[in-house]
Design a protein that fits this description.
The structure holds two protein chains of two kinds. Helices cover 61% and strands 10% of the residues of chain A. By secondary structure, chain A is an alpha+beta fold. In chain A, helix 1 runs antiparallel to helix 10 (431-467), helix 2 (73-103) packs antiparallel against helix 9 and helix 6 (275-311) runs antiparallel to helix 9. Chain B has six helices and six strands. The chains are: A alpha+beta, B mainly alpha.
């Protein structure tokens, strides 16, 4: 009889312990209510084994079977996927917003007004070709056009190389996160081996994987045995496996001015599509080069057409017209690269402007008229666009790129929020729920303690009876 | 559905961020009055604005051209008016010389008068505007006529500049002196020679030529008048086109204030509501009621 009373004491003790664990878990949940990436936990109780007091069998109390984490791996994956696009749009939208300000010519201080001004000054010269101040005006407007071209081009390049520097910083960040994930992989595996709770480690690791997704497009899967995350870049390059991470390098390009991203000695730059790094690379390698090429094409067309027309006229002294702009010599055959920065007026004497038709006398304006008329010619886009149409099309493209990056970013933000809310519906901490749990465990704890004092009184009664 | 505490805060933050961004955009539009503050607001409108600015600059240039031509042509016209009056008065002097009662002294005085008027014609023919000899054809940097003895010789050419005053419309920018002054000089010089020699029949026959010289001056003035009329019409048309372009620019570039202000106040209401909701957000939970 006494042995089974003492056995009851054991049940009460286990119960106290179990409620204590329940309180601990609740306390941990409350403490982490605002911790990003934290997944709420719960102590799983299970009835104890059978006890056999006399001929009758009853349960032997409660056991803490495990502490489980309310994690939904599928939603984790979906959040992770969407974070990649969010990182991409964020990076490209930031870069494009810097560029669009330069091409928003509301104050008439940009390239468009400089182009108009040059051609219109040829038209003014046609009113009085022998007029020295009108000639000076043409030269000044030609120089102005050159400086506006250089200014636009160099500003674009500045933002582009800022993007380039960000690439190096982002790759460093990716490497450091990957290394941390590998370390946590090892710790999670060790915790599992020791049969202890690796939930908090898992949360930290998931938060890092989410952070990594904001930087680069990855996919990952969880090894069922060890619980390790294996992470690859979208196109297959291994980033983390078990406790090993594979650091990427940034390497100076042999063909261009910018850094390449290398993994295992191979250039993987063009395969990176999303995340911040994808956004940086896309703007650096696709958007900006296309804007810069457009400026080069525009400048090259103006230089060659104006020069050809200028050469077919004659100047104030009756001499044949030379080159108005310094002729552009391509450094890369078939490419206009460098033309925008090379646009410069070649003549210094106002009298050398060839306003006249050949042999037309100092008052002849025929060539000035033709020079002014170049702005109506379809010089660009395969002879389908005037200089101004081509430029306004560039403005349109830049605006559209900035708009779609911005719109995508906004939509993506809502999507990520929505998915995070869904994830938190399962994984997030609810203080109301924790308050209820707290009461539950407290009451059970109090009852178990009460049970011990009852058993204690029983024991004393039995001892007194026997001893009496 | 189970609601965790983070959801409410995350939604609140998301909404506040979105509304704040919209509020900023709307407030900027209202305060600046500019709709196209950034290219991304309306890329195609921004691109159209580039073209409209270019068009406006061109229209402005056409007006400059028209003003400039108008000035040159008006000076030409008033010079030819003076020429006409001068030729008329030379005709009067010549008619006096045709009177057979004149003695040698009288004829010589009349010849001197004609010679001085010949000089006045020369000065009209060599009229300069802003440094250019307007009757020298396109040889505008040298005098149109030079005189050796009593004979004026044209130094310019017969070329005419065209001035563009709108797309597809142009005017002649100058009158070559050879067309209008040369016949006049020829007549006046013939008259002068006849008066000096006292040859009455030669005086009469040279006076007979004057009407055709005067008719030429009138014809040229009529042509100038046509060109000046074209310029007036073009200026009016350019003004209309400019107004159209500016209307279009204002249509796409200016903020519709009534709509923008009402939108701003809508966003403000939504923002205040979201902030109020935020202040109420989970103000209490079960812990508040636990002893």
């Amino acid at each position: 009889m006494i042995s089974s009373i003492l056995a009851s004491m054991g049940i009460a003790r286990e119960a106290l312990y179990a409620q204590q664990v329940g309180l601990d878990v609740t306390q941990n949940n409350i403490a982490n209510v605002n911790t990003p990436g934290y997944t709420r936990q719960r102590a799983e109780f299970a009835p104890g084994g059978l006890a056999t007091p006399g001929n009758l069998q009853s349960g032997s109390g409660v056991q803490v079977a495990s502490i489980v984490s309310y994690r939904n791996r599928l939603l984790d994956q979906r959040v992770n996927d969407e974070l990649q696009s969010q990182g991409e749009y964020d990076a490209s939208s930031a870069a494009l917003q810097q560029v669009e300000a330069l091409f928003n010519d509301t104050a008439n201080s940009g390239l468009q007004s400089a182009i108009s001004a040059l051609f219109n000054s040829f038209s003014s010269l046609a009113n009085a070709p022998e007029n020295a101040s009108l000639r000076e005006q043409v030269l000044a407007n030609g120089e102005q056009l050159g400086s506006r071209f250089r200014q636009s081009y160099e500003h674009l390049q500045e933002v582009q190389s800022w993007q380039g520097r960000e690439v190096a910083a982002t790759v460093n960040q990716i490497n450091s996160i990957a290394a941390n994930i590998a370390k946590l992989n090892a710790e999670v595996a060790a915790a599992r081996g020791a049969n202890s709770n690796g939930n908090n480690l898992d949360d930290r690791r998931q938060a890092l994987v989410d952070e990594l997704a904001g930087l680069v497009d990855i996919s990952y899967y969880v090894e069922p045995e060890s619980g390790s995350f294996t992470i690859t870049a979208r196109q297959g390059t291994l980033l983390v496996a078990g406790n090993q991470s594979n650091a990427w390098q940034t390497v100076a390009s042999s063909s261009g001015p910018f850094l390449e991203v290398h993994a295992n000695g191979a250039d993987i730059t063009s395969t990176i599509q999303s995340g911040k790094l994808g956004g940086l690379l896309k703007t650096r390698d696709t958007n900006f080069p296309s804007y810069l090429n457009a400026l080069d094409d525009l400048a090259a067309a103006i230089i060659s057409r104006v020069n050809a027309q200028h050469a077919s006229g004659s100047d104030l002294n009756g001499a044949p017209g030379g080159s108005f702009f310094v002729p552009f010599v391509p450094t890369v055959p078939g490419s206009n690269r460098g033309a925008a920065r090379a646009l410069e007026v070649a003549i210094s004497e106002p009298a050398e402007i060839a306003a006249a038709s050949p042999g037309g006398g100092p008052g002849s304006n025929a060539n000035a008229q033709s020079l002014a008329g170049i702005q109506n010619e379809l010089l660009l886009s395969g002879n389908t666009a005037t200089v101004n149409q081509f430029y306004s099309n560039l403005v349109f493209r830049i605006g559209l790129d900035a708009k779609s990056a911005g719109d995508n970013l906004e939509t993506q933000g809502h999507l990520v929020t929505e998915l995070q809310n869904q994830r938190d519906a399962t994984s997030g901490v609810s203080l109301d729920e924790e308050a209820v749990n707290l009461m539950l465990y407290q009451k059970a704890y109090q009852a178990s303690a009460r049970l011990i004092s009852v058993i204690d009184a029983l024991c004393e009664d039995v001892i007194r009876i026997i001893g009496g | 559905m189970r609601i965790s505490d983070s959801v409410g805060y995350r939604n609140l933050l998301d909404n506040l961020n979105m509304l704040n961004a919209r509020f900023e955009r709307a407030a900027q539009q209202v305060s600046s009055g500019q709709r196209l503050s950034h290219l991304h607001v309306a890329p195609s409108d921004s691109a159209e604005m580039v073209q409209l600015n270019d068009q406006l600059a061109r229209l402005d240039q056409f007006r400059t051209n028209a003003d400039s031509s108008s000035y040159f042509l008006q000076v030409s016209d008033s010079t030819l008016n003076s020429l006409y009056n001068l030729v008329t008065s030379i005709y009067t002097v010549g008619s006096e010389a045709a009177n057979s009662f004149n003695d040698a002294n009288a004829l010589s005085a009349l010849a001197a008068e004609i010679r001085s008027q010949h000089d006045q014609i020369l000065s009209l023919a060599n009229t300069q505007v802003e440094g250019r000899y307007i009757f020298a054809g396109l040889q505008t940097t040298s005098p149109a006529f030079t005189v050796v003895g009593d004979t004026a010789t044209y130094q310019g050419d017969g070329a005419v500049n065209t001035i563009r005053i709108s797309d597809g419309l142009q005017v002649e920018g100058n009158i070559p002196g050879s067309a209008v002054f040369s016949p006049v000089f020829a007549n006046v010089e013939a008259l002068l020679a006849a008066v000096e020699s006292g040859d009455q029949s030669a005086i009469k026959s040279s006076l007979g030529q004057f009407s055709s010289a005067l008719a030429t001056v009138n014809q040229v003035r009529a042509r100038l008048g046509v060109n000046l009329g074209k310029l007036d019409d073009a200026e009016a048309a350019l003004q209309t086109q400019e107004t159209n372009v500016k209307t279009r620019q204002s249509h796409i570039g200016d903020v519709d204030m009534a709509a923008a202000i009402s939108q701003l106040s809508q966003i403000q209401t939504a923002l205040q509501a979201a902030q109020a909701a935020g202040s109420l957000l989970k103000r209490s939970n079960l812990f508040d009621y636990l002893a």
